[in-house]
Amino acid sequence: MQFKSLLLLAASNLIPSATAAKITTQSDADTLPDTITDGIEISSTYTGDLILPTVTTVVGNITYSGPDLINFSAPVLSVVVGTFNFTGDFKSLSTPAITQITEALIVATSDSSFDCAPFQTLQRDGVVSGEFTCTV
Ligand SMILES: *[C@@H]1O[C@H](CO)[C@@H](O)[C@H](O)[C@H]1NC(C)=O
Ligand SMILES: *[C@@H]1O[C@H](CO)[C@@H](O)[C@H](O)[C@H]1NC(C)=O
Ligand SMILES: *[C@@H]1O[C@H](CO)[C@@H](O)[C@H](O)[C@H]1NC(C)=O
Asked: 112 C-alpha vs ligand 2 centroid, how far in Å?
């Protein structure tokens, strides 16, 4: 795991100007490969629920900032070589397979039913190497 991550980190440093995969619809997410090399940007206009069914590794940041994403699920996402930053009004984020986030983990939602506990557990278990915030 650590060796793989070092390789991914090296790869990310070789392509600093690459553009993130942009997700505007669920079908964009359905067609992603399992390894993303330039980050993922979920459109600020994304509305409703979103599942990333295939993605296991993201080199680069995975980001969302907007008002209408409701439930996000990345069932097989394991490694983020970068920052995971979701800011919005979502109800739930499910990332049950995550083992490593090499930079920051930022979760901020205005939905008061959101549960930060799983993310606090990730932080406590040393999954997050950078800044951690979960604010509801
Ligand atoms: C989001 O998840 C909640 C809780 O599981 C569920 O009630 C709701 O139907 C889901 N989707 C949307 C769009 O609210
Ligand atoms: C990823 O996010 C960090 C902030 O957490 C930022 O410094 C960095 O430039 C971002 N990388 C890319 C490729 O956008
Ligand atoms: C996270 O995203 C928010 C909204 O786009 C931005 O204001 C903030 O600077 C980001 N934080 C990090 C550490 O990337």
From this structure: 28
For ligand 3, atom 9, which residue shows the shortest CA distance?
Answer: 85
Atom nearest to 49 CA in ligand 1: 13
Write out the residue range of the structural domain in which residue 56 sits: 3-10+20-135
Which pLDDT score is estimated for 40?
98
Residue 9 above 70 pLDDT? Answer: no
3-state SS of 46-95?
CCEEEECCCCCEEECCEEEECCCEEEEECCCCCEEECCEEEEECCCEEEC
Question: How many domains, in total, are found in the chain?
Answer: 1
pTM for the full predicted model: 0.88
Residue 112 counted as domain residue = yes
Q: Is residue 15 part of a domain?
A: no
